[in-house]
Amino acid sequence: MNENHIPKMESHNLNQSITIFAPATVANVACGFDSLGFSLNEPGDEVIISLSDSPGVKITKITGDDGKLPLDAESNTAGVSVLAFLKSIKSDQGIDIEIHKQMPLGSGLGSSAASSVAAVVGANELLGKPLSKKDLLPFAILGEKKACGSAHADNVAPALLGGFILIRSYNPLDVVSIPFPEQLYATVLHPHIELRTEDVRKIMRREIKLQDAIVQWSNLAGLIAGLMKSDYSLISRSLNDIIFEPVRSLLIPGFDEVKQAAMQAGALGCSISGSGPSVFALCTTRTTAQEVGDAMQQALTHVGLQSDLYVSPINGDGVSVVKQINS
Ligand code: HSE
What we know:
By secondary structure, this protein is α+β, with helices and mostly antiparallel strands. It is built from ten helices and eleven strands. Helix 1 packs antiparallel against helix 3 (137-148) and helix 2 (111-126) runs antiparallel to helix 3 (137-148). The radius of gyration is 20 Å and the shape is globular.
């Protein structure tokens, strides 16, 4: 290990290697397109970051992606985030990245965001935490831009910070952590089809009627107020997306049946997770969340699609260190 590779930093005890877990996230949360997301306990990606004596950022291994993700650091979401982070702290420290995908790609669960967040948090930890967690957000967003061409933060911010995160502004970046009821559970159904965020964003409406915009922003305000006041009825009344869901749901076979099943089984609300195809519901207890999930899964089976089901409390912490191996 050569500390001269980190010219602008104080000398400190460098760790050789660190394993980071970054969770899946539900972006948009119905009415908060590109503005609101929350973090799940599982699934998530594990990324191992190691200091290297040879300069540069290298992706040494990727598992769980069926060979779909690039090993070239400048083309890889995690690699891009770490390169930008190192540039910003003026470090030429060599970094090796091993990515273990533990959630499906193109699922609407924030898969690329999880890898970016885990990688940049791991690099920051190994270099003695020159930046705060929140300061790492712009680097993780760059990874997201690389993955799908759009620098949205409603997956990366909750994966990084945990809980419900509102992106109040992108320029300048202003993210706000929203208190939420502890009993809240999320059900996420992942149908076995793949939708690329980049493609789904191309078919979105570009112009919105004022009367639709009013409904949408009133629902977002209602959802935030409902979360903060633990007012389940208000959360339920607000969990509606009248702008994007009607178009995007056409790409998800059985969406209407799945949503109807979730609502009949007692969900507070149900909509598309991120750009889909996953569908999420919010529920007031674990038991209801499981029943809602079973009903959603059964509805999807009726249209001939297999799926994975996740039932999770809201993850209030976001990214976490799994293991650290000291030099
Ligand atoms: N807000 C983004 C979108 C999330 O809906 O396109 C993508 O996961």
